[in-house]
Amino acid sequence: MLKYSVGLDISARTIYACISSIDAVQRVSVKSSCKIDNTLSGFKQLHQWITKHHKQKHIPLVVNMEATGVYYENCAMYLFKQGYSLSVLLPNKAKKWLQSEGLKSKNDKIDAQGLAKMGAEKALELWQPTAEYYYQLRAMTRQHQSLQESKTAANNQLHAEERGMYKNKMVVKQLKQQINFIEKQIADLETAIEAHIALNKEVAEKVDGICKIKGLGVLTVAVILAETNGFILFKNGPQLISYAGYDVVENQSGSHEGKTKISKKGNSRIRRILHMPAFNMVRYKQKPFIGLYERTLEKHGLKMKSYVAIQKKLLVLIYSLWKNNAAYDINYRNKYTRELEQGLPLGMASIEAN
Description:
With 354 residues, this protein is an alpha+beta fold.
């Protein structure tokens, strides 16, 4: 036997668990299954159940689960504190793998068995919990985005109501009150985000250094830090680029030449928050972004594609400044940017003048 693997299919109230093992000929066999409550007492019961069936203690055991909303978080944190090696997968990744195994039926028990088999056969990336500081920051930045979207919806509704054939004064009044209330909440939240960043002196100093880039605000950096857990799990630029969905996808086969575009299979909140700063880089003619914009625009003539290139470069620059604890200086060109984009180790180039 090479490894034990526990698969957990988690919903709001229940957890279906399955423990499997894999032998030297890559044969996976199910050892046991159970159903528990998604509560603290259920987690303790799960721990006891795993301990009971993990009979050969010298053989490694992994736990594999899906990131189902927030319902997995308490269970994952409990198992992490108990010392388990666990992986948390995006639902679409687990779904595609299970489909590739030819599973036609789907229920919670089958999903748990599939996750156990996946954990046994593959060396999955281990999960690390988000630090409480960044967890709280993420809650605020995501609420800020939600409020902005609510404000946009209310403004659109007000616009339509005021220009309709018949105008309802009561509806218009309520919409205006709603917009004013949302704007106040947004302002309060922005103040709270800045105050939260100031709680950590090291983070605050790094954010101040990054925000020396003209056209880049505290909120943008806060969202990126919140969504990446302070870059703690990223070892190089390509990992971050892929996580944000800026990795390039080609569509070519034989004589067919399809469009080359970014995958967008990543954290959309990062791409969203970098949209306006990319425009600011061009507006304020910030180097090296304005040069990149002009070169790419001359090449393909698509403004938005050039703005996306700036977003990608800006994200890598923020990561570089953060990792090297450096403040942005417009008089210097940081050669770490190219290294990060190519996946090279940090520290192989110096910061030299233009």
